[in-house]
Amino acid sequence: AGAAMRTEISTAAAFVTRLLRAAGGIGEEQLRCFRECLQEALREHYKHHWFPLVPSKGSGYRCIRINHKMDPLIGKAAGMIGLSHERLFQLLPSELTLWVDPFEVSYRIGEDGSICVLYENPQPGGKASKPLESRTSCKEEWRIGRTSPSKNYNMMTVSS
């Protein structure tokens, strides 16, 4: 499973690292170390919970979650570069869900946010899913996809 999940894990780790970089105040060397530590923690955590033939199996186990509590894997990687949980809460969204599944990595910021796909690869032997270009972009979904009254969220944009 190691090689099979490399792309998904590096996509997830790079995303969290980009959120930290966008918040500022962390050096590139620390960010590189954080990314490597997070990748290693995810690899270890997912080792026996990766099922390419049934991608949704184990999805809850692989979900990375910050919901006013720090995800232990992010917390562990941050500890390696000397970042406290308190500092992490200042730098990262207070509500972040990141799903790391075979062939797809997606995330949601806020409980009512749109789910945005970071990485998608058609499953071997499976029907190719809709190409990403044909989907409504996350920004557009954010604007048009709201039926509940809007709440004031501080949105963080991420650029690579």
| Count of domain modules | 1
Overall geometry comes to globular
**Structure annotation, total helices:** 6
CATH secondary-structure class: Alpha Beta
CATH architecture: Alpha-Beta Complex
Would you report the number of β strands? 4
Radius of gyration based on Cα positions: 16 Å
Average pLDDT over all residues: 82
SSE pattern = HHHEHHEEEH
Which sequence of strands runs across the widest sheet?
Answer: 1-2-3-4
Q: What is the percentage of strand-forming residues?
A: 5-15%
CATH homologous superfamily assignment:
Anti-proliferative protein, N-terminal domain
Structural class: alpha+beta
Residues in helices, as a percent range = 40-55%
What's the CATH topology name? Actin, Chain A, domain 4
| Low-confidence blocks of residues | 127-137, 139-157
Sheet bearing the most strands, described? Answer: 4 strands, antiparallel
Written overview of the protein:
The protein is of the alpha+beta class and 160 residues long. The chain has a single domain, classed as Alpha-Beta Complex (Actin, Chain A, domain 4), CATH 3.90.640. It has a four-stranded antiparallel sheet with strand order 1-2-3-4. α1 runs antiparallel to α2 and α2 crosses α4. It holds the Pfam family BTG. This is BTG1 protein. It comes from Eubucco bourcierii (red-headed barbet). InterPro entries: Anti_prolifrtn, BTG, BTG-like_sf.
